[in-house]
Structure formats: structure tokens, C-alpha cells
Amino acid sequence: MHSEVKSMNLGGVNCYLAKCADGYILMDTGFPTKRDALVRELDKASCKPGSLKLVLITHGDIDHAGNGAFLREKYRAKIGMDANDADIVELGDMSRNRKTKPDKMSLLFRLISLVVGFVSRGGQFDRFKPDIQFEDGFHLSAYGLNANVVHIPGHSKGSIGVLTADGNLYSGDFLYNLPGFNYIDDLETHNQSMDTLRKLNVKMIYPGHGKPISGSKLFL
Fold this sequence. Notes:
Largest sheet: 6 strands, mixed
Helix content: 25-40%
């Protein structure tokens, strides 16, 4: 079950498109303001309405879930995510199910969050209800991808990653590779998730922001 995965940088947000035997899986969707760029990237990959089988959301924030409703309507794709972040996308509230004061939040992230928060309050978060709620360990073979969903809370309670059989982890915002850019809602839970990942065969990490990084550098 071989799949090709294409990285798409949409305004600093990494989304990943997996080409499978009978269609495509998109991991994260980018900001609504980058919708035209997303559609162009899908067109270039020959991903058309009807061939996008699954939109997998690693967590509910607008820069990752912001085009979910649009993709379901235009491409007739199912949307899947963890139940713990479902309220975020259903209510359009990124503070939902999070601490009032996160355990770690860099100044850069704080400044960006103020801007993003203003945008989402302005009504640009297209709310939706997920079609599928992933359990930890859910295998994506039904969609043509030899990979498991991994529950890795810490950035949010419903953060998930996708770990392929050959050791590639698509981590969403659980892990970054950007200096000075960091947000951890619950540090204890985040550390527990790190311990979980150390036990897995993670060779390369493909984060939601920044360039890929070797798993050996993080999971020593």
C-alpha cells in the first residue's frame, strides 16, 4: 500500500496531501484566507471533487481546520479528527477545552494568536461538525494509507498525528520547527505524549510549521 505525500506550504502552515491507490487524503487545510492557493495546489496534484476521500484535521485551530467545511462541500470529502477538539470547529472557538493560561506560550505565538483571534471573531471560521471521530490507533488503510492515527495531546486536548508504516510522523502543532514559536496548553500531558512517541519508530517528523526534522533529534 504505497502512497506519495506532497507537502504544501500555505502561508507558513504545512498541509500534506497523500496520493493513495484510489484517491487522496489531505492532512490539515490552512487558513481560509489561503483557500485559493489550496485549490491551486490540489488542482496541480490532480485532486478533483470526488477523489479527495478524507480531510484529516490534526487539531481544531483555524490555520489547520479553516477550510474543512469548504472542502467537504466542494470535494465531497469526509472530515475526521479527535473528539476532544470537535467543539473548537463546531463553535469556532479556539479557546474551547483549553486552559485560560497555557503552560507555555512564546511572545511570537502570542502576537500571532492576537491577530488570528481577531480574524476568527470576525466570522471567518467556517464552522462544521466532523464526520469521523478518530480513536487512538485508528488505521487509515480504509482510505488507502498505511498509517495510524496517534493521539498526542498537549498543544490541544484533541491533537493527533499520523504515523506511517515507514516512520514518518505528521505532527500538526504538537511539534514545531520554528525558533521562538511555541504553544503548549498542558505541559504534563505534552510530556506524556513525548514519552508515547519515544516508544514508536519515528524516523522523520513533518510539523505543521517549519521544515521536517529527524526523529532521532527529538526522541533521544
